[in-house]
Amino acid sequence: MTTPDRDGALADQLLRLTHRVHRIQKRHLHQADLGITPAQSRLLRTLAHFGGPPRMADLAERLEVVPRAVTTLVDGLEASGAVRRVPDPANRRVIRIELTDTGRATLHVLHDARRAAAREILAPLTDEQREVLGELLDTLIDGAPLPEC
Amino acid sequence: MTTPDRDGALADQLLRLTHRVHRIQKRHLHQADLGITPAQSRLLRTLAHFGGPPRMADLAERLEVVPRAVTTLVDGLEASGAVRRVPDPANRRVIRIELTDTGRATLHVLHDARRAAAREILAPLTDEQREVLGELLDTLIDGAPLPEC
DNA sequence: GTTCATTGTGAGTATAGGTAACAATGAGCT
DNA sequence: AGCTCATTGTTACCTATACTCACAATGAAC
């Protein structure tokens, strides 16, 4: 038997990798010294992928967290001056989250930190292996079933 | 240019995957209803990979967390009856962590939950792709530089 | 035998996220 | 109009993870 429990082994590897990725990202963020936490960085990154300023509910859905979590993250980012809460004139219940100029500058630094972290994590892989991994991760992420079902 | 920023893109994908893996594992663990948290599950899994009962310091090193964190995890697992603190007669400073029979049973259930989680995460991949991913993850994990340097 | 290193833990903190209740608002219906 | 119900963000609280720092007990080295 060449693969006694391939999926179980993959689970183990994924969990170990997950832990490592988180630790390394945290270290690089700390070194960047922007006062941005990993979850805040994730929100900023997501923010940049929207066309216009999204509603907080949009962010919660995209980040796959509960709306309450977004409130906390935006609180922190607003205190850092990276984002701004802007009330939506068309619907007074919604608040749109805008990236400030400071936030855009922060995003650049974060991007560099993220890339450095990636280089550290991916160090054992050749260029070809990174290409293959990228394709596999694309497939994994694009093929993910709808969140929360 | 075919790869404008491959490492940066990989970082994004890894971070998204990391979040997803963590959420899905948490859900499956909760469904298993063993009262075991993700970090405790990680410790149990690690425990099974040692030959004999390891010292808490060994666990901290292997898990790549600070020793204080191991204390908390063992506290919870001992309360669940999954492990036992056994003083080392050869060195009265060290405490060895033994898996109980209950713990061994728990491990089996956890293994199934982990495999189910893996199947859910890996659903978009074919068998061949899973093999390739497994090899890449092997390389990534084995080639990791020594912890904390 | 005094000094220094190892080992685990108490106390306190920060981050991440979850639930439940709620106030403000908008939408639909009669 | 009014009444009901869904949406949106937030207040208040709880849990899990992991960190630092200080410390007590022990062992090792000189």
TrEMBL record, chains A, B:
One GO term (biological process): response to stress
Superkingdom to which the source organism belongs: Bacteria
Domain HTH marR-type: 11-142
GO molecular function, one term: DNA-binding transcription factor activity
PANTHER family, per the entry: REGULATORY PROTEIN MARR (PTHR33164:SF103), TRANSCRIPTIONAL REGULATOR, MARR FAMILY (PTHR33164)
Descriptive protein name: MarR family transcriptional regulator
Organism of derivation: Streptomyces longwoodensis
